[in-house]
Amino acid sequence: MSPSILQYLPSYLTPMTLGKRMPTTEGIFFCTFVCWKHIPLIDKTGLYDSIYEKLQRWTDKGCAVNGYVVMPNHVHLLMYAPPGASINDILGNCKRWWSKVIIDRLTEAKDHNMLFRLQRDVNTHRHAKGQWFSVWEPSSDIKTCFSEAMIVQKLDYIHRNPLQEQWRLAETPEACLHSSAAFYSHGGPTSMPVVHWKECFR
User: Fold this and answer.
1) Per-residue CA distances from 99 to 47, 63, 103, 151 (Å)
2) Other CB atoms closer than 10 Å to residue 153's CB: what's the count?
3) What is the mean pLDDT of each run of 10 residues along the chain (202 residues)?
4) Number of structural domains, the chain?
5) Which alpha helices (DSSP H) does the chain contain, by range?
6) CATH code, domain carrying 153
């Protein structure tokens, strides 16, 4: 186990045996989705509130957010999907909604340059499907977390993302406003409800 994660986990949240396999009928998934051409559209449109609102709607349907960080141009999620749910459908639904919110907010702000930039890259095939703007990179990165070791590793990666050289959004993981690091560090409040990953398998 990466030693760096231990400083963010109080003793009562220390991971169990790391060789244990996760159930295959439901799962925790590490998900990443990125704004088109890495443009900081999340920060530019203040999308944070809409991200939390939409994810909360999915938690009301039995999903759970086990960890997250919302960056200016991408999102990392550790998300539990219950039996019968499709993580691809969940993320697809979220991204479609957030695309609409981003375009609406850019329109309200009269940011014609950005709207033109997002529109000019849409090819004829996507136009035929009714897509008029490129807001997200075409595919999301989704990985099934097969073990507790992988969950812990992904949480560590998520929480350290804002500290990377190209970002420097916070001095410590817990200081990042749009992250679950404070929850795993000391049970502190976060911008949206987080469910500890262990709770999903009890």
Assistant:
1) 10, 21, 6, 28
2) 18
3) 35 35 66 96 98 95 96 97 90 94 97 93 59 85 92 97 93 95 93 93 74
4) 1
5) 41-45, 48-59, 87-108, 112-120, 124-128, 148-160, 181-186
6) 3.30.70.1290
